[in-house]
Design goal:
It is built from ten helices and six strands, in the order βαβαβαβαβαβααααα. By secondary structure, it is an alpha/beta fold. It has two domains: 130 residues, Rossmann fold (3-Layer(aba) Sandwich), CATH 3.40.50; 71 residues, Winged helix-like DNA-binding domain superfamily/Winged helix DNA-binding domain (Arc Repressor Mutant, subunit A), CATH 1.10.10.
């Protein structure tokens, strides 16, 4: 798996490269600014890009803009975005767009190697990976909605993990239940949120967060 890293913090950038290489992955280039990042993507055609949200020169949204451009130039490029803190507007827009081969993690998650690698491989494999803290804040912000209040505590657990991008097998493993039990909970969640129970698996996160944002 070829990976390009775009991160202006040299310590984090080099630390990521060392970590990924130690895991047997091919970090083909690193960059500390959007221009060099796009050049590296064009040159190496990586499968995955790890991109900081805020990069020079203004440290606002240059990383996101560069990631969007990289995916325009190379359709199918998986992008894992890193952020120092939760930026809810970006997280919601990311999920509402469908989230295929996209991830959004807080930088503190990098230190939890197993979780970070799981998220990276999930995104590379065509899935979605959303930081649990982002999910928690989105759920908390929308807690007053009476439809969400219909869910049982276990269904809330399942919903939060669905929003992180986990599939049924991973959900079952995380909650120590059978896949059949997970499927039952998901059917119940869709019914209680007035969402079609036969939505495709890759649309579940979008459907849930569309609901949480009041976008039916």
């Amino acid at each position: 798996m070829r990976i390009v890293i775009a991160e202006d913090d040299s310590l984090l950038r080099e630390g990521l490269a060392l970590l990924l290489r130690a895991e047997g992955l091919d970090v083909v280039a690193t960059a500390d600014n959007p221009t060099d990042f796009l050049t590296a993507v064009g040159k190496h055609e990586p499968e995955v890009a790890i991109v900081d949200v805020r990069m020079p020169p203004t440290h606002t949204d240059e990383g996101i803009v560069a990631a969007v451009e990289a995916r325009r130039r190379q359709p199918g490029l998986a992008v894992l975005v890193l952020s120092a803190y939760v930026e809810q507007a970006f997280a919601t827009d990311l999920l509402a767009s469908g989230g295929a081969r996209l991830g959004y993690l807080l930088k503190e998650r990098v230190g939890r190697v197993e979780e970070f690698m799981d998220a990276l491989l999930r995104v590379a494999g065509g899935g979605t990976a959303i930081d649990p803290e982002v999910v928690a804040q989105l759920l908390a912000r929308n807690r007053p909605d009476n439809k969400l209040e219909r869910l049982t505590p276990r269904e809330r657990d399942v919903l939060a993990l669905m929003a992180e991008g986990l599939g049924n097998t991973a959900l079952a493993e995380r909650l120590f239940v059978t896949e059949g039990a997970v499927s039952k909970h998901i059917r119940s969640i869709f019914a209680k949120l007035d969402l079609a129970p036969d939505d495709r698996a890759d649309r579940r996160v979008t459907a849930v967060l569309h609901y949480l944002e009041g976008r039916r």
